[in-house]
Amino acid sequence: MKLFKWKNDGSKPKFSNFIESIFGKNIKRIAKDGEEVSTVPSANIADEDKAFEIELAVPGLDKEDINIQIENSCLVVSSEKQYSKEDTNKNYTRKEYGYASFQRIFQLPKNADLDQVHASLKNGILKIIIAKDKTKEATMKKIAVQ
To answer: Is the pTM for the entire model greater than 0.90?
Structure first.
């Protein structure tokens, strides 16, 4: 299973100054030239006997916040969440708001059964199981190093 690389087109969210103030470092200075720092969930991918299993860490998201699609043999997992909170008292008004989004794209192998995809969310872990199609075997070729 392949992962697409991010393009530096400014479409992904970046760490806020709040995160930088917690760590006491300017995160932009740590990143290499051409790299962007973003809030993209970590993924674990397993190639099991009967299925491919993908786990994404998505703490704080509900199942309604997550969008899963298959486009051109690619699994696209995305989310967009906005929130706002207002606290009004006699002497002050406090307003908080935020926005977060991500998108992960996984290219599925030829033996993935696109009709047998199941997803579940438990304790901040999104688990996606993609069954293997037994009629379409994945091809493997060994390359000798010279």
So the answer is: no
